[in-house]
Automatic annotation (TrEMBL):
GO terms for cellular component: extracellular region. Residues 349-368 are annotated as: Disordered. It comes from Streptomyces gilvosporeus. It comes from the Bacteria. Residues 354-368 have a biased composition (Pro residues). GO terms for biological process: carbohydrate metabolic process. Keywords: Hydrolase, Signal. Gene3D superfamilies: Carbohydrate-binding module superfamily 5/12 (2.10.10.20), Glycosidases (3.20.20.80). InterPro entries: CBM5/12, CBM_sf_5/12, GH, GH18_Chitinase. SMART domains: ChtBD3. This is Chitinase. Residues 374-418 form the Chitin-binding type-3 domain. One of its GO terms (molecular function) is carbohydrate binding. Residues 1-33 form the signal peptide.
C-alpha cells in the first residue's frame, strides 16, 4: 500500500502538552490530583465495574492537546461512559519508557491521572491507545516483545486499566520488527492481565486494509494472537460517505476470514471500525447521516467495535465549514456539541439523553490572508492542509499536516508555492 500522506495526523501532541494537561487536571478538580500523587490504587478501585461494551464504543480523546473538552460535561450531555485516551509513545529523546505524546512520562504523570479520576468519579472509565500517527512508538524502540510489554504494563498498572488499544499505522507498521514487538507485547499483556479488553486498529483502504495491514494480520496469526477486535480506519484513503466505508468493512471481513479461517459471523464478531467525524485530513466528509448508516451496518452485522476520532473534534467550527479546513478541535460540519459521540453511546446499547446538547462555538482564528501579510513560517507550529505561511519572500500553502518541514518545492511536496510576495 502506498504511504498515506497524513492519516489521523491531528492525534500528534503539539508543544505545550504539559501546560494544557495541568490546566485540564485543575479543571477536573484539584482534589483528584494533589501535588504529584494521583495514586494507582485509587484509580484501580474506581474503574472496576464497566462492561466491555463501553470499551468497544469508546471514542478517542486527547486529554492533553487539541483543546480537550471537559470529559464530565461530555458524559452529562451524551450518556457516554468510556473514552479512548491518546497516545502512549516512546520518549522523543529515545528509550523504552511510556510517555503521553512522547513528552510527558507516564511514571510522573498527574495530569492525565486527574482526568481519569474525574471520569471514574462519574461512573465511567478509560482505555489508553498506544501508537497512532506521528512520533516514535515503543515497538520501534524496545528491542523485544517482552520489553515492549513491560513498558505497556507500566501504563496498565499506573492507571488500573481494563482496556488497551494498539493503533498500528505509519510509519511503525512498515517496520516488521516493530510490529512483531507490538503484537508479541499484546499477547503477553493478554496473558498477564486476564480479562483485559484489547483492540488493534490499523489503516483502512477500499479493499479493507493495505499490504502492511495484511502483514500485521499475518503476524497476529503467526503468533496465535487474537484480540477482542481488529479495527480499520476507512478515511484518508479515497473514501466519501458511508457507502464507501461499509464496502471497506465488507472487504476487511473477507480478509479476516481468509487469514484466520473464520466464518463470516465470527469475523464480524472480531471486526471494528474507527471513523473520523466531519471533515477528514484529506477533505473527505462524513456527516451524522453517514455515522447512522455505519452504525446500522455495525449493529446488524454484530460487529465488535464502533469508535471515532475524536471527541476533541466533536464540536461545531466557526464558521461551521471552517473555511474548508480540517481542525483538531472542531468537525468542519454543522452540528450540535458532541453529536457524533451519541452514536458511540447507541452502539454501547445505551440511550443518549433526549435533550439536544447546546451547540458550542469554539474560538477560532480568522484564516490568514493569502498575501504577503501571512504569518511567517515557524518550525514549531503544526500546519494543517490549507494553512498559509510566508517564507523566503513567497507565500506557501500546506497540502496536508506538517511540522518542522521548511516550505520549499522539494522535500515531501507538502508545501505549494503560491507565488512571490
Amino acid at each position: 500500500m502506498a504511504p498515506r500522506q497524513a492519516p489521523r495526523h491531528l492525534r500528534t501532541l503539539a508543544a505545550g502538552v504539559a501546560t494544557a494537561g495541568l490546566a485540564l487536571a485543575t479543571a477536573a478538580g484539584t482534589a483528584l490530583a494533589v501535588g504529584h500523587r494521583t495514586t494507582a490504587p485509587t484509580l484501580k478501585a474506581a474503574g472496576a465495574a464497566l462492561g466491555s461494551n463501553w470499551y468497544a464504543a469508546a471514542p478517542y480523546l486527547m486529554p492533553l492537546d487539541n483543546d480537550p473538552p471537559d470529559a464530565g460535561a461530555v458524559m452529562d450531555a451524551t450518556g457516554l461512559k468510556a473514552f479512548q485516551l491518546a497516545f502512549i509513545l516512546a520518549p522523543n529523546g529515545g528509550g523504552c519508557s511510556p510517555t503521553w505524546g512522547g513528552t510527558s512520562p507516564v511514571g510522573t504523570d498527574t495530569a492525565v491521572g486527574g482526568v481519569i479520576a474525574a471520569i471514574r468519579a462519574k461512573g465511567g472509565d478509560v482505555s489508553a491507545s498506544v501508537g497512532g500517527y506521528g512520533g516514535t512508538k515503543l515497538g520501534q524502540n524496545c528491542g523485544t516483545p517482552e520489553a515492549t510489554a513491560a513498558a505497556y504494563q507500566q501504563v496498565i498498572d499506573k492507571y488500573g486499566l481494563k482496556a488497551l488499544d494498539f493503533d498500528l499505522e505509519e510509519p511503525e507498521y512498515e517496520n516488521s520488527a516493530a510490529i512483531h514487538n507490538e503484537i508479541g507485547a499484546a499477547k503477553i499483556l493478554q496473558q498477564k492481565n486476564p480479562g483485559i479488553y484489547l483492540s488493534v486498529t490499523t489503516a483502512g483502504t477500499t479493499d479493507g486494509t493495505g499490504w502492511f495491514g495484511k502483514q500485521m494480520l499475518n503476524e497476529a496469526k503467526a503468533q496465535s494472537f487474537t484480540p477482542d477486535n481488529f479495527s480499520i480506519m476507512p478515511f484518508d484513503g479515497g473514501f466519501q460517505g458511508a457507502a464507501s466505508q461499509t464496502a471497506a468493512l465488507t472487504h476487511f471481513n473477507s480478509l479476516l476470514q481468509s487469514t484466520f479461517g473464520w466464518d463470516e459471523a465470527t469475523a464480524y464478531a472480531h471486526e471494528g471500525i474507527s471513523q473520523m467525524n466531519g471533515r477528514s485530513d484529506t477533505g473527505e466528509t462524513f456527516t451524522q447521516a453517514d455515522f447512522q448508516t455505519v452504525l446500522d451496518f455495525a449493529t446488524s452485522h454484530h460487529m465488535a467495535r464502533f469508535t471515532n476520532w475524536s471527541v476533541n473534534r466533536d464540536r461545531q467550527c466557526s464558521p461551521p465549514d471552517n473555511n474548508g479546513k480540517t481542525s483538531g478541535t472542531c468537525s468542519s460540519v454543522p452540528q450540535s456539541a458532541y453529536e457524533f459521540t451519541t452514536y458511540s453511546v447507541k452502539f454501547a446499547g445505551a440511550t443518549p439523553p433526549t435533550t439536544t446538547p447546546p451547540t458550542t462555538t469554539p474560538p477560532t482564528t480568522p484564516p490568514p490572508d493569502h498575501s504577503c501579510t501571512a504569518a511567517a513560517y515557524r518550525a514549531d507550529t503544526v500546519y494543517l492542509g490549507g494553512d498559509i505561511a510566508s517564507y523566503n519572500g513567497h507565500t506557501w500553502k500546506a497540502k496536508w499536516w506538517t511540522q518542522g518541514e521548511t516550505p520549499s518545492t522539494g522535500g515531501s511536496g507538502v508545501w505549494q508555492d503560491l507565488g512571490a510576495c
